[in-house]
Amino acid sequence: MLKLENLKCGYGAFTAVHGLSLKIPQGQIFALVGANGAGKTSTIMTIAGQVELQGGSISFDGRDISKLPASRRVTEGIALAPEGRRLFADMSVEENLTMGGYSRPRSAEAEAKAMVLETFPRLKERIAQRAGSLSGGEQQMLAIGRALMADPKFLMIDEVSLGLMPKIVDVCYDAIEKLKARGITILLVEQNTQRALAVADQVCVLESGRSVWMGSAEEARKDPKLIEAYLGLTN
Hints:
The strands form two sheets. A six-stranded mixed β-sheet has the order 6-7-8-3-9-10, with helices on both faces. A four-stranded antiparallel β-sheet has the order 2-1-4-5, covered by helices on one side. Helix content is 38%, strand content 28%. Helix 3 packs parallel to helix 6. It has a domain at 1-77 and 152-164 and 181-235: P-loop containing nucleotide triphosphate hydrolases (Rossmann fold), CATH 3.40.50. The radius of gyration is 17 Å and the shape is globular. The protein starts with a strand and ends with a helix. By secondary structure, it is α/β, with parallel strands linked by helices. It has helices at 40-47, 70-76, 93-100, 109-119, 121-125, 136-148, 166-181, 193-199, 217-222, 224-231; strands at 2-11, 14-24, 29-33, 52-60, 63-64, 78-81, 154-158, 185-190, 202-207, 210-216. InterPro entries: AAA+_ATPase (IPR003593), ABC_transporter-like_ATP-bd (IPR003439), ABC_transporter-like_CS (IPR017871), BCAA_Transport_ATP-bd_LivF (IPR052156), P-loop_NTPase (IPR027417). One of its GO terms (biological process) is L-amino acid transport.
């Protein structure tokens, strides 16, 4: 599904990620974890075409997309729910969802919107409400829902649980598992490592822009040295 080969990315003269290589098979949940500044957000923003690719390559469905603009990557099936949500605060929930489906035929909008509202029933209750007046958890649901309006094959979600109440985190992760069951491949960026490992198939630990461990989430949960060194979990 997605393959990074020796990916380097950054901002001007600054390199945030140094030579990252990974493969994400279709239908899996892949967790990218690490501390603040590890390069997680830079990685997914580069996949989305929003941060400069300084070296290496990005392949999606067997095709090199390294030079495609961000808009073309969306039409290829890649969507991003970014950190900070970046909603249109003065627009309604429904209008934000409509904006997310800009790359699709108008005829497909109703079906996509119905799927989003089925995944997040709370949004249906808030459909006419301004996005800026929603709670943090509702805004996160809307950010994910807006990304889903593009009908992605590959969905990236940056900092799923950041700043959210545990009950809302549960709702978001329940939705993520439902999306996987629908066949959507998911790349999670998450500081709440324990929660990410509970749903992920594979995990990559980043530190200072480099991969320091990669393998199955099950292996990660059972590796005491990894847990102590990088993941900050307690038994």
